[in-house]
């Protein structure tokens, strides 16, 4: 692939003056640098949920102003199909599910069999969206974008990241704009800084927390990137108290020393890699011994109650 052409396309779309060759080469990489989703697919549905799927569905259909049976939806980075299933059960006309992990996509196919010929499955590697222009009424991208620049960000030494440091993310947003129908809605489920800080462990593991936040574009940069692509009617919403895994699993933090429990959320890989896991386990076990673990958990999770684990961004492609 011609790296200079990719760099030039970013400069034309976003007015960027410099993008390193190392970062742009990640255009060709698969979606995740810190989690093996081929392995994760075996346990994924034991814990993960389609958090706030019905609220998200109600917002994008409200913006779209179309009946469900007239909506064609593309779910990129669909994983095992939890959100795909949740959206489709409302009676959408069709859904295309797409993921870079064949194992995750196979799980999604099984889950979506109930919808028969209304479902198309495709193996893709973001930021490439190999679909005709103006194909979909809705494109959903649920907890995906933080993966696709992870390799380059791991090598970056910049202290303060800006939107040009997320070229794959920017290219994905641009391609999503192209394959949306006029008046269509892009739905992006993400974590902004407050969402990252809603996870109980981030106050206790500053090195891992910093790496965790670096994978995510800021809310300001996300909105400005969408505006630069000509999206309009941009809406951001938090989901206070919302967890990305089942509450009964998420809240059992006394299981932090159990590798299987940690595997339910990929972010614990960052804690393991940062060298902070042993101290985190000690803090939790000491709190449990003192009988104050629930009290400490509530304190450590302050932003869970106000912002939740995730946010959703909705952006519309103009009608003309």
Quick overview of this protein structure:
GO terms for molecular function: S-adenosylmethionine-dependent methyltransferase activity. This protein has about 325 residues and is of the alpha/beta class.
List its traits:
alpha/beta, Methyltransf_11, 18 helices, S-adenosylmethionine-dependent methyltransferase activity, seven-stranded mixed sheet, SAM-dependent_MTases_sf, Rossmann fold, Methyltransferase type 11 domain-containing protein, 320 residues, disordered N terminus
Explain what you see.
Pfam families: Methyltransf_11 (PF08241). This is Methyltransferase type 11 domain-containing protein. Residues 74-188 form the Methyltransferase type domain. One of its GO terms (molecular function) is S-adenosylmethionine-dependent methyltransferase activity. InterPro entries: Methyltransf_11, SAM-dependent_MTases_sf. The protein has 320 residues and is an alpha/beta fold. The chain has a domain at 40-194 and 206-246 and 308-317: Rossmann fold. The protein has 18 helices and 7 strands. It has a 7-stranded mixed sheet with strand order 3-2-1-4-5-7-6, with helices on both faces. Mean pLDDT is 88; it is low at 1-31.
Give the integer mean of the pLDDT values. Answer: 88
CATH architecture name of the domain at 40-194 and 206-246 and 308-317: 3-Layer(aba) Sandwich
**Into which percentage range does the β-strand content fall?**
5-15%
Helix content estimate: 40-55%
CATH superfamily of the domain at 40-194 and 206-246 and 308-317: Vaccinia Virus protein VP39
Strand order of the largest sheet: 3-2-1-4-5-7-6
How many helical elements? 18
Query: According to CATH, what is the topology of the domain at 40-194 and 206-246 and 308-317?
Result: Rossmann fold
Give the overall silhouette. Answer: globular
- Structural class, by secondary structure, is alpha/beta
Order of helices and strands: HHHHHEHEHEEHHEHHHEHHHHHHE
Domain Methyltransferase type: 74-188
GO molecular function, one term: S-adenosylmethionine-dependent methyltransferase activity
InterPro entries: Methyltransf_11, SAM-dependent_MTases_sf
Protein name: Methyltransferase type 11 domain-containing protein
């Amino acid at each position: 692939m011609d790296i200079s052409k990719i760099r030039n396309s970013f400069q034309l779309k976003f007015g960027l003056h410099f993008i390193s060759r190392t970062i742009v080469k990640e255009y060709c990489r698969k979606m995740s640098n810190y989690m093996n989703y081929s392995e994760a697919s075996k346990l994924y549905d034991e814990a993960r949920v389609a958090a706030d799927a019905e609220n998200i569905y109600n917002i994008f259909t409200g913006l779209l102003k179309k009946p469900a049976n007239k909506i064609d939806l593309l779910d990129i980075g669909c994983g095992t199909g939890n959100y795909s299933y949740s959206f489709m059960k409302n009676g959408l006309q069709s859904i295309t599910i797409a993921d870079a992990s064949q194992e995750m996509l196979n799980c999604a196919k099984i889950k979506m069999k109930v919808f028969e010929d209304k479902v198309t499955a495709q193996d893709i590697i973001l930021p490439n969206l190999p679909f005709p222009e103006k194909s979909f009424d809705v494109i959903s991208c649920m907890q995906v974008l933080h993966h696709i620049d992870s390799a380059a960000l791991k090598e970056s030494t910049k202290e303060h990241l800006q939107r040009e440091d997320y070229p794959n993310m920017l290219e994905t947003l641009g391609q999503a704009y192209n394959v949306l129908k006029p008046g269509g809605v892009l739905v992006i489920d993400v974590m902004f800084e407050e969402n990252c800080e809603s996870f109980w462990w981030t106050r206790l593991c500053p090195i891992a927390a910093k790496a965790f936040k670096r994978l995510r574009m800021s809310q300001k940069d996300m909105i400005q990137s969408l505006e630069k692509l000509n999206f309009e009617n941009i809406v951001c919403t938090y989901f206070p108290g919302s967890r990305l895994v089942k509450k009964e699993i998420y809240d059992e933090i006394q299981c932090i020393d159990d590798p299987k429990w940690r595997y339910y959320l990929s972010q614990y890989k960052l804690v393991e890699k940062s060298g902070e896991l042993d101290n985190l386990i000690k803090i939790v076990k000491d709190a449990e011994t003192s009988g104050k673990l629930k009290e400490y958990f509530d304190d450590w999770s302050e932003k869970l109650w106000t912002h939740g684990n995730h946010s959703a961004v909705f952006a519309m492609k103009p009608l003309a």
